[in-house]
Amino acid sequence: MNKKKLTALVASLGLVACIGVGATLAYFTDSANTENTVTMGHVNIDLSEPIFSSENEGNAISNVMPNQRITKDPTILVKQDSQPAYIRAKIDIPELEGEAEEELLKGININSRWVKGENDYYYFQNIVNPGEEVKFFTKVTIPSTWNNDYVNKKFQINVTAEAIQADNFEPNRNDLNEISGWNGVNAETYTGPEFKN
């Protein structure tokens, strides 16, 4: 046999072997499709003042005097249908400013598990699980330094509470390792099924 015929024979046998292996491999393959349904979780909180609301008709107090203690108990509940969450809250007193506002803020007994941080928010220092509630504060003491300049003065103490999911979120921490911010995240209102008409 000459070299050309031998080379052609070897190449032909090699090609037959490749086709045979390829055909064999085709018998050992399979494919399948799967469909996954992903349902997004949500965070859902409720802000109430159970004691204040029951003691004060129409959410108003009148005839308040300097150094008087007022029961005010903003309570944040992470609802059962919610994911575990970090919570923050903010106090706004729109009718007061400057020294008067600062004096009144000093008279609010904010719970020690809250730390003032970014953008004047107070940050709760633990993750709050569904069904758990936390109090922001329980009392407001009217400044003893308030005099006749404040007679018939009306003001509101407004509280806003916000939550963000705890899973896959890392809040900012200060030098004492306290939660002090949410990395610039702005909270949006959850409009779940109970809000639909």
UniProtKB/TrEMBL annotation:
A family per Pfam: Peptidase_M73
Q: Does the keyword Signal apply?
A: yes
Indicate yes or no for the key word Signal: yes
Q: Which InterPro entries match?
A: Peptidase_M73_camelysin, Signal_pept_SipW-depend-type
What PROSITE patterns does this protein map onto?
Answer: PROKAR_LIPOPROTEIN
Q: Which residues form the signal peptide?
A: 1-26
Instruction: Enumerate the UniProt keywords alphabetically.
Output: Signal
Domain of life, source organism: Bacteria
| Protein known as | SipW-cognate class signal peptide
